[in-house]
Amino acid sequence: MKIMQNTASKYELKHYDMVINDELLFFVNGSEENLNDFALALQTEVPLSLYFILKSVEVAKDMSKDYSNDIIKNTSTFDFSINEINEIKDLESPNFCDIFNYPKFKVDFDIFYKDKKIDTRDIMQKVLFDICNMLQNNETISLQTIKGRISISLNSDNFDYIMANGMSNIALYTRASKDEMDALATFEKPCVSLLIKELFVKDLGFKRALFVLPYDIILYIVANILLKKDIPFVYIKNTSNSTLTYDVPFKDNFFEIIVGNRGYFIHNNYIDSKETEETVCNLLDSNFIAENAMFVSYLSTNHKTIFGKLYNNQIDPVLNISFDKNPKNILKELLKRKNGDKLINNFKKSFFDRFERIEALDDTPQQSNNIVDILDSVSFILGFELDKNKIFELADLYLRDIGPKIDFKNININGEIFYDHILTIRSIMSFSIAGVEIETLGYGVLESLVDYLILIFRDVDTNYSIKDIGIIGNMFANKIIFDKLTKKFPLDFNLIFPNYLDFKS
Known about the structure:
The protein is α+β, with helices and mostly antiparallel strands.
């Protein structure tokens, strides 16, 4: 808002603003030339935002308030425009490090380093170059930022987040999509979990990490100095102390989002509560408030699956999830299906060691009400332990955008509809015999689970005329699941996100 006010004042436009529902209306009045200049300036002055979208520009017929030239001068943040940030962080710019005189109405609070006040461009330059030199000497520096107190270092042994010193390093070292890079660059500066390219995993020492771009003018400058020294990353850890401080408390926090397709993103938030039948209902009720019936899909790695209609604080399940995930018992059931014996014999010939491991299992039922637990069974069939996380790891290694279609279908048992887990395992065994790689199968089973969800959503619309779909559960924090869901979600349906994804593990 302050950037828009500053920009309007820059072009001598009177202005005021108001909020109606979820929309901000920003009114400006002035000469036609200045109005045109203002409209063009918004493209370079106002940064991208997760929550702010310019919907339209219209001629206002009625004015409900007097115009003003006032600007909110008192602030506890750095409200710099894109152009100002570029000027201040550029080592060759005459405004390098000048956060005091170059931009008006930006810094109206004191900044200290080791209890000494920083109030000139020259002092700021010296302090920040000293900090960068200490980082290069393997020292850890503590800073106060708009997202709280942090320590920064060039040592990757212990960190919470990685700050990339430039977008080019995100593109070089990670498998970030364009949408993820766009999200990282927004005004809010979220964290995004990114996979490291296989080429750099050994050198960096990790396969995935939470990345963030510089989000504070001090960090912009530090990052640019380090970038000139060919240093790609700074490792961030939350701390309680700082040697560089501001005399105002900042309350912004790091937050993580999962970025999907078509502009969708979801916050990776969790509620600190133990799961019970009552708390699950409370979780759904508190996250989805609707005047009409809606459909909710609760898909979690740790808790039972819920596919049901939500209305008046009541969940009405439309699909039953109940199966024995023990691979040995699954093969016994498969033997009863058409051509099941042939498939099992062929699997035994192709993967004798895997078959022997399955046969050596205890035949005690492992009953589950969680469809995600089928991934445990898939993992064992592929030669690993009963560990769904192995499937996520395999899927992350897959480099293409489409996998084989694994069967996720329903079966009618005495008039009730159940998920048929036998068909999923049958598919996995068939593709394995055909020589499909395990990474491909890992990706395919996740993509096919999404296809199954989309089919359920369409069936709910057909049977109950419900197009409002709420998704909840930590499975939607999986990049592949969320990416495929938002790509394939029907355009005429409404996708509704929760405040909290799931319970803390």
